[in-house]
Structure formats: structure tokens, C-alpha cells
Amino acid sequence: MRQTTDHDRQTAITRARYNRIAPLYDAVEWFTEHTAFGAWRQQLWTGVPAGRVLEVGVGTGKNLPFYPPGAQMTAIDLSERMLARARRRAAALGARVDLRLMDVQHLEFPDNAFDAAVTTFVFCSVPDPVAGLRELGRVVRPGGDIWLLEHMRVDRPFVGSLMDLLNPLVVRVMGANINRRTVENVQLAGLKLVAVEELRGELVRLIHASGSLSDQPDAPSLRGC
Ligand SMILES: C[S@@+](CC[C@H](N)C(=O)[O-])C[C@H]1O[C@@H](n2cnc3c(N)ncnc32)[C@H](O)[C@@H]1O
């Protein structure tokens, strides 16, 4: 029998945290959604082709209105209460999406099951982000697109160190790591980096990677937190 690891414990804590905040999530995010996030989502989804698309960490379903027409959508989340809200939003919008409770660190899909995958503001809270990114590389066909809209550590000496210092407190209060090195993690996971666009300086970036597993299968599993 497999031993319970620290990542398993962190995953359980993350699930419980999002179950707890699910009823408040949309209200808390209202301002940022209307001033920035909404436009960034639109920009991201404009580049997503209409094939077999996986959204990871669907949350309350804020990306649903942007799904490409004609795409065969599957979306997963770790939290049943966030997922329940996404279900309600999908029903209200008449969106066709297969919503499933699942952990990105252990996806229950076969290799090459998707043409593209998308995440928005997810990898700050996944306990082992490199494991999750590797899973994306496995389930997205070689050459398929992986889009990540994520906040991350600013790579400047003072600001970066301050983010490192504050991270344990922020994780405790909000559950999200503010010092993830997501661009490096994408590379550590063996994905091919296609482009990185800074949307709010280095703090929020839109990463375009390709689902082509490269030659780093034994890369270390975590950076920056
Ligand atoms: C900050 S919310 C973002 C939700 C949504 N993507 C958005 O843009 O509004 C992070 C979401 O990722 C989910 N999540 C965290 N860890 C996960 C994991 N290991 N596997 C799948 N989903 C996860 C959480 O349950 C939560 O719904």
C-alpha cells in the first residue's frame, strides 16, 4: 500500500480550503475579474483551437463563456464544491462540458487524450506543480497546445525575496503560493516553452507551451516554494 506523502496531505488541505471558500469565491474575485482577469481570459481563449480541450482547475466556471464554439470540452477540479458551482454555471449558459472531480497530479485520462489544455490561476495552489504539468504533457498529444494564465514570482532581487518571505503567511491565509516559478516549472516538467507574455509585469504571465515531452523525465519535482 502507498504511504501518505506530504503532497497528499497538502492536496487534502487544498481541497478542503476550496470547498470552504467556494460560496464566496466569485464575490471575492469580483473586482479583479472585471478590471483584469476577464480580458486576460478572453485573450487566452482566442488562441485555443476547437478540438478536444481539457480545462484544469475549472473552479466556479469563469472560463465557460470563453470556450471555443464546437470544442469537445472536459474540465476538472479538485474541489467538489467549486465543481458544483461550475455545473450550475454550465447549465445556466447551456455549455456542453464534461465536468469531473479529479486531481491534476494524477489525471485519469489516457495518454494523448486531448489536443489542448488550459489552466487559469491554478498552479499557485497545486502542491506538486511539476507533477501536474507533467500530467498535462502526458494527456495532451505531442504538438498540442498548453496555455497557462498564472501569477508567479517576480524575478527581481528585492521583490522576489519579499515574495519568498511572505509566501508562508499568504499560503496559510489564502492557500495560494505567491512565489511559484511557473515558467521554470513548465520546463522542468519537460514541456516545450513556445511563448511567455507578461500581462502585469512578471507577476501575471500567459504561458504557451507545447505538449511535447522532452528529455527531462527525471527532472526535480518542485521549484521555488
Ligand atoms: C484560484 S482557483 C481558480 C479557478 C478558475 N480556474 C478561475 O480562473 O477562476 C484554483 C482552482 O484550482 C483548483 N485546484 C487546486 N489544486 C488542484 C489540483 N491538484 N487538481 C485540480 N484542481 C485543482 C481549486 O480547487 C480551485 O478551483
Summarize the structure.
This protein has helices at 6-28, 30-46, 80-93, 129-139, 157-174, 182-188; strands at residues 52-56, 72-77, 97-101, 114-120, 140-151, 192-200, 204-210. It is an alpha/beta fold.
Shape from CA axes?
globular
Strand order of the largest sheet: 3-2-1-4-5-7-6
Largest β-sheet summary: 7 strands, mixed
Domains counted in the coordinates: how many? Answer: 1
User: What integer is the average pLDDT?
Assistant: 91
**What is the fold-level CATH name, i.e. the topology?**
Rossmann fold
What is the radius of gyration computed over CA atoms, rounded to a whole number of angstroms?
16 Å
| CATH class wording | Alpha Beta
Number of helices: 6
Per CATH, which architecture? 3-Layer(aba) Sandwich
Fourth CATH level, the homologous superfamily? Vaccinia Virus protein VP39
Strand coverage percent: 15-25%
Give the tally of β-strands. Answer: 7
